Structure formats: structure tokens, C-alpha cells
């Protein structure tokens, strides 16, 4: 029977959707981080450029103040300082602008006196003494990073707190406040206005604008953005590759597990099939053989693998296989092979070529089916058909023969009384009477075989029944030199039997065993035991045995190997056992003896 097994696909592992979600979250986190980095870089760049611009303004103021102290604050000298400062890297322009937005000084001389911006813009940006910055755009595109503040070179710096009033006066004198000379660097209108304490007023001081190139900054930030985007894309691709790999790995694992389960299931199915199966390669080398096939052929399963069909199969089977495989179709033949115990095993052999989808041969498969039970059923059907035919014959014989026999017996009895004792006529009449009685017995036995069994069941103790039947044949066994041996298990259940009919079957088997040993004597052994829900009763003898060719016919009516007898005894035994719901089997070895085994259900009525 096929054993039950549970096959499960692999469970567990990370869901692909979790990996997808993690990849999206990672991509989102990197994108947010990139955005924050971009803004932070903008802030850092703004602070850096602002600090750079403020430092330039302070440097320019210091240069202007130094020139004034040296009484060199003429326009040509300071203009040269402005122009020289504007040549520093990333400096686009440096301009001094009044509150009206007019250019007072510029690194490009041609722009002095032009309008740098409007007065409204000057008021909106509200320049102070501290450096401020803004991004100048043109068409929504940044063109310059501007740092601006009030230009205050005459304010008292921290380093001049110890300066004498004479130095301040020299600075004032060098500034030429309000001088209108065209050669002044602040010409044409003069750019410095002082208060009474000789310090420039904050509101009236010009505003210095330093414009720095944003292109390198924008390029660096764009490059960082590209790198960040590339990094995010690579991470996303890696995540997607991980998802694809996980899908593939899980698919592969599930396919592998399914293949393993399918192989285990197929192996269990093949191992549990009642047929023998042999698989070979195209060259005939055996790759698989199950236990049933190895038992049928009487070969070792492990040793059979790796050998060819010619090494393990009988020649008659090989010949049939060749003819079967030539057709390339599934075909079946019936054969009989000799068993190791001397018996014959009927087999049905089916052979087919295993083909792939492209019709390529990958080997052959041979299926062996044991036909023993089928043949047994066929014999039983034939037996029943014979019994039915005998029944019809018995009915006619009983009607057509018994009535004349009764008349013959009556006249023979009448004539027997007319003659003297010991006369030849008296003896002839008695012979007629004896033969008529013998014919009546034959007809009775024939009717016994043919008629339906009339079983009168009642609870019976089997060991008591065996004892009583053995007592009836004990004397005849002693006369034939037969020793009776009985082995009866304890605790036999109560049986639902017809004691008379079952006793008739047992006595018939006893007498057959004794007659088989009457010349040389022997042992008749009776074994009784319970096994697998049945009561098993075995009657064995050590007589001459039955030829193998006769074993299959001994239960047929009128079949006998004896010189005397009707051949109906075993037929009646078979009929009685079947009527009790049991079965009887025979195993005989010529020259060693015969064993009859009866199996009966032990459920009492």
C-alpha cells in the first residue's frame, strides 16, 4: 500500500516586496539626502563666497586706508588697487556705488559714472557696514554672486585705536574730501564725505559691490548632483538587481524543492506499485530496478544496477523485449519463467521506449506484472463453470439413472431370496445389489458436488472438532504406519461452522494424507494458529507428493491419480471450505510430501 507522505514547498525567506520596499525607501532616503546635501552645499558656498567677498572688502578698505595715510589716496593709486584686486580668481567686477545707484569707481574705467542699479534697489537691499550677499540673476539664471557693504575706509579700525590725531589728520588730508579734480579716483563728483569727527557717515558712504563668478560653484554643485544622482541610480539598480536575484533565487529554490518533492513522490509511487519496473539507458545498461522486479527475477537489486539487460533477464525475455522495442510502441506479452523453488511464475511483460519531446530516445522502460492471482482467478472461474456443467449433468443422472437402479436393486434382492445360500446365483444377485449401491453412492457424491452448499452454522470449538475427527482416522493411520502430530495454539476463538460438513472436509484430507504414506509410513502434522484475522489450519504429510503438472487440477471433479476412487473428494472439500468463507491452498513437492492450508475467518456467529 502506498505510504502517505507530506510534501511541502519551501517556506520562509524574505518576501520580494520587502526587498522592493527597502530599495524604494533607500532610493528615497538617498534622494532626500542628496537634496539636503545640495541645499547645504549652496549654503556653505554662500557662506564661503560671502566670507571671501567680505575679506576682499576689508582688504580693499585697508588698502585704501593705507594709501590715505601715506598721502597717496589719489585716484590713480586707488584705481590701480581696485583693478589689481579684480584680477583675483573668480572676481567678475568691483564697483563703488552711491545711494542713487551711480558708479563712483569700477575696475573697468568705462563704467565709472554709469548707472549700476536703481535708487529703489539700493534702498531695498539696505546696505550696512556688515557684508551682505545676493545672487544676481539674468533670465532666471544666476550670473554673479554679489557681496556688498558700505565702503568705510576712514572708520577707526581695531588696529588704529592707538593712532595719534596727527595720523587721522594726515588720512583726512590725503582723502581730499570734496575735491573736484578730474584726476581723483572718485571723480567726477567725489565719493567721501566726512562728519565733524572726521569719520565717514554710514548713510552717506558709498556701497562697494564685489561680483564673483558662480559658474565654478554651479559646475561643482552640478557635478556633485550628477554624482549623487549616479550613486542613487546605481543603488537603485543594485536594489533592483537584488530583487531580481532574490526572485530568481526563490524561484530556483522553489523549483528545486518542487523537483525534489516530485522525485520523492515519483520514487515512492514507483516503489509502491505492484508491478516490477526496470529502466535502462539506450545502450541497455540498467539504471533503475525496483524491489518487486528483483524479487520476480530472483536477482539482487544493487548488483543489477550498471549491468545490461542481457546480464539479468532470461533469454526468452530478452528475445521478447527485442521484438517489442522494434515497434517503438507500448506492447505487452505473456510468458512463464521458472522460479527458484521449481515452480512457474506467469508474467506479463510490457516494454516501451522513453522518448523526449523531440523524439530522441533516452532509454527503455520494462514493466513486469505478476499474473499468478489472475491465473488463479481464471482457474476458479473455470472451476465454477465446470461445477455448473456437472450440476446440470448430475440433475439428469439423478433423475434418469436412480429410478432404473432402484428397480434393478429391487429385482436383485428378490432373486437373491429365491436362491440357496452359497449358490452361484445367490452370489451373482448380491454382486448386482453391491454394484447398484456403489452407483448410488457415486450419484450421491456427484449431487454433493453439484448442488448448492447447505451450511448449518453454529458456534464450534475448533480444537474439539479436530480431536473428534482425528479419532475417526486414528486406527487407519496406525495400520498404515502413519504418526499423527498436532500443534494447536492456545486461545483459539469460537468458530462459526457447520460441524458435520467441516468434519467431512477434514476427514477427506486426513484420508488422502494417510493413503499417500500407506506404503512407507510417515508423519501427518496438523498445525492450527491465528494469524492476521484468520485461523490457519495446515495438514501436511511426508508422502509421495503431487507432480507439478497435476497440482492445478486436483480440485477438479473426477480428477484423480489413484487407481481407485471417483476423484470427487477434493472437489467436495474445496466446495465446503468456500461455503464457510475460507480458502484452501496446496503446496506439494514430488517425493517429499504435500501440504494443504486452510484459512477461515474467526468471527463467530
Beta content comes to 15-25%
CATH architecture of the largest domain: 2-Layer Sandwich
CATH topology of the largest domain: Beta-Lactamase
Shape: rod-shaped
Subcellular location: Cell membrane
GO molecular function: ATP binding; phosphorelay sensor kinase activity
Membrane topology: Multi-pass membrane protein
Protein name: histidine kinase
Characterization of this structure:
The chain has 605 residues and is α+β, with helices and mostly antiparallel strands. It has helices at 16-69, 75-86, 119-125, 165-175, 215-272, 291-297, 301-304, 309-312, 315-326, 372-418, 424-450, 462-479, 499-516, 548-551, 569-579; strands spanning 91-97, 103-106, 132-138, 141-150, 207-212, 276-280, 286-289, 331-338, 344-355, 361-370, 458-460, 482-488, 495-497, 522-531, 534-540, 583-589, 593-601. It is built from 15 helices and 17 strands. The strands form 4 sheets. The protein has a 5-stranded antiparallel β-sheet with strand order 2-1-5-4-3. A 5-stranded antiparallel β-sheet has the order 7-6-10-9-8. α1 crosses α4 (165-175). The relative contact order is 0.06. The model is unreliable at 1-12 and 157-199 (pLDDT under 50).
Amino acid at each position: 500500500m502506498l505510504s502517505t507522505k507530506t510534501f511541502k514547498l519551501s517556506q520562509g525567506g524574505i518576501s520580494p516586496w520587502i526587498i522592493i520596499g527597502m530599495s524604494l525607501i533607500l532610493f528615497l532616503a538617498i534622494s532626500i539626502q542628496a537634496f539636503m546635501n545640495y541645499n547645504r552645499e549652496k549654503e556653505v558656498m554662500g557662506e564661503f563666497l560671502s566670507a571671501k567677498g567680505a575679506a576682499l572688502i576689508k582688504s580693499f578698505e585697508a588698502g585704501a586706508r593705507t594709501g590715505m595715510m601715506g598721502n597717496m589716496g589719489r585716484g590713480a593709486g586707488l584705481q590701480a588697487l581696485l583693478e589689481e584686486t579684480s584680477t583675483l580668481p573668480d572676481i567678475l567686477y568691483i564697483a563703488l556705488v552711491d545711494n542713487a545707484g551711480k558708479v563712483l569707481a569700477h575696475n573697468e574705467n568705462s563704467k565709472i559714472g554709469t548707472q549700476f542699479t536703481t535708487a529703489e534697489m539700493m534702498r531695498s537691499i539696505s546696505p550696512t557696514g556688515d557684508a551682505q550677499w545676493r545672487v544676481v540673476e539674468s533670465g532666471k539664471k544666476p550670473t554673479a554672486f554679489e557681496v556688498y557693504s558700505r565702503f568705510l575706509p576712514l572708520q577707526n579700525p581695531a588696529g588704529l585705536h592707538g593712532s595719534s590725531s596727527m595720523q587721522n589728520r594726515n588720512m583726512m588730508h590725503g582723502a581730499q574730501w570734496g575735491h573736484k579734480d578730474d584726476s581723483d579716483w572718485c571723480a567726477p563728483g567725489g565719493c567721501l564725505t566726512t562728519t565733524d569727527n572726521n569719520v565717514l557717515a554710514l548713510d552717506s558712504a558709498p556701497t562697494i559691490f564685489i561680483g564673483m563668478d558662480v559658474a565654478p560653484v554651479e559646475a561643482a554643485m552640478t557635478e556633485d548632483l550628477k554624482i549623487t544622482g549616479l550613486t542613487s541610480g546605481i543603488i537603485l539598480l543594485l536594489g533592483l538587481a537584488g530583487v531580481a536575484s532574490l526572485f530568481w533565487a526563490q524561484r530556483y529554490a522553489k523549483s528545486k524543492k518542487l523537483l525534489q518533492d516530485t522525485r520523492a513522490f515519483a520514487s515512492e509511487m514507483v516503489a509502491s506499485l505492484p508491478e516490477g519496473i526496470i529502466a535502462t539507458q539506450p545502450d541497455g545498461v540498467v539504471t533503475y530496478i525496483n524491489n518487486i522486479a528483483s524479487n520476480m527475477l530472483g536477482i539482487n537489486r544493487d548488483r543489477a544496477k550498471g549491468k545490461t539487460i542481457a546480464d539479468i533477464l532470461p533469454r526468452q525475455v530478452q528475445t521478447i523485449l527485442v521484438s517489442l522495442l522494434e515497434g517503438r510502441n507500448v506492447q505487452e506479452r505473456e510468458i512463464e519463467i521458472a522460479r527458484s523453488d521449481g515452480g512457474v511464475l506467469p508474467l506479463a511483460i510490457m516494454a516501451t521506449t522513453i522518448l523526449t519531446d523531440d523524439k530522441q530516445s533516452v532509454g527503455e522502460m520494462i514493466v513486469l506484472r505478476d499474473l499468478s492471482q489472475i491465473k488463479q482467478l481464471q482457474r476458479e472461474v473455470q472451476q465454477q463453470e465446470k461445477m455448473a456443467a456437472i450440476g446440470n449433468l448430475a440433475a439428469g443422472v439423478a433423475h434418469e439413472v436412480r429410478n432404473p437402479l432402484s428397480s434393478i436393486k429391487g429385482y436383485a434382492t428378490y432373486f437373491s431370496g429365491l436362491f440357496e445360500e452359497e449358490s452361484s446365483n445367490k452370489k451373482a444377485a448380491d454382486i448386482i445389489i453391491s454394484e447398484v449401491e456403489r452407483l448410488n453412492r457415486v450419484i450421491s457424491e456427484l449431487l454433493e458436488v453439484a448442488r448448492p452448499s447447505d451450511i448449518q452454522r453454529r458456534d464450534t470449538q475448533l480444537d474439539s472438532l479436530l480431536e473428534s475427527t482425528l479419532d475417526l482416522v486414528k486406527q487407519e493411520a496406525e495400520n498404515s504406519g502413519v504418526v499423527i502430530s498436532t500443534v494447536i495454539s492456545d486461545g483459539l476463538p469460537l468458530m462459526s461452522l457447520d460441524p458435520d460438513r467441516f468434519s467431512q472436509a477434514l476427514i477427506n484430507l486426513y484420508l488422502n494424507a494417510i493413503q499417500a504414506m500407506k506404503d512407507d509410513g510417515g508423519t501427518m502434522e496438523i498445525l492450527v494458529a491465528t494469524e492476521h484475522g484468520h485461523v490457519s489450519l495446515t495438514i501436511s504429510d511426508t508422502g509421495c507428493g503431487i507432480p507439478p503438472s497435476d497440482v492445478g487440477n486436483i480440485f477438479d471433479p473426477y480428477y484423480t491419480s489413484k487407481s481407485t476412487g471417483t476423484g470427487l473428494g477434493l472437489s467436495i472439500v474445496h466446495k465446503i471450505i468456500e461455503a464457510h468463507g475460507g480458502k484452501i491452498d496446496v503446496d506439494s513437492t514430488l517425493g517429499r510430501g504435500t501440504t494443504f492450508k486452510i484459512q477461515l475467518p474467526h468471527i463467530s456467529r
